[in-house]
Amino acid sequence: MLRVAFRNQAPTREHPTHHLYYVYVVPFASKPFLIGESINGGHGEMGGSASLDLAEPRAWPGWEQHFALSGCGWAVPLIGADAAAERASVDAVVREVPTRRHRRVRRRRL
């Protein structure tokens, strides 16, 4: 399992200090994308996650926003590719993660 990105977006309506969005990739799994939220910390408190194949994120309205909130909006064009090229999309994300991991992104507080 490879962490693509995660970011705390708190304060939100759901929680004032802990609302993490995250995206992981499990390169050799039948459903290689794991996306989720952790709200209020703790295991199983609030939030949740789902494992998805390449077609499933595109069928879910708002997946692009989830990737952006997680800090990996850069992966949207890679995932948005042809569903027949799932392996290539997963490989593209895996190759890109190390180049993105050490970049610091300044977030603008609203």
How does this model look, in words?
Helix content is 30%, strand content 25%. The protein has 110 residues and is an alpha+beta fold. The protein has one domain (2-101). A hairpin with a 7-residue loop joins strand 2 (19-25) and strand 3 (33-39). The chain starts with a strand and ends in a 9-residue tail after the last helix. The mean pLDDT is 84.
SSE blueprint:
Layout: E1 2-8, E2 19-25, E3 33-39, E4 46-52, H1 55-59, H2 63-70, H3 76-79, H4 86-101
Antiparallel strand pairs: 1-2, 2-3, 3-4
Task: Please count the helical segments.
Answer: 4
* Spatial arrangement of strands, main beta sheet: 1-2-3-4
Main sheet specs:
4 strands, antiparallel
Radius of gyration: 14 Å
Helical fraction equals 25-40%
Number of structural units classed as domains: 1
- Count of DSSP E strands? 4
- Strand portion, in percent? 25-35%
Summarize the structure.
The protein is an alpha+beta fold and 110 residues long. The protein has helices at residues 55-59, 63-70, 76-79, 86-101, and strands at residues 2-8, 19-25, 33-39, 46-52.
Which features characterize this protein?
110 residues, alpha+beta, four-stranded antiparallel beta sheet, 4 helices, 25% strand, globular
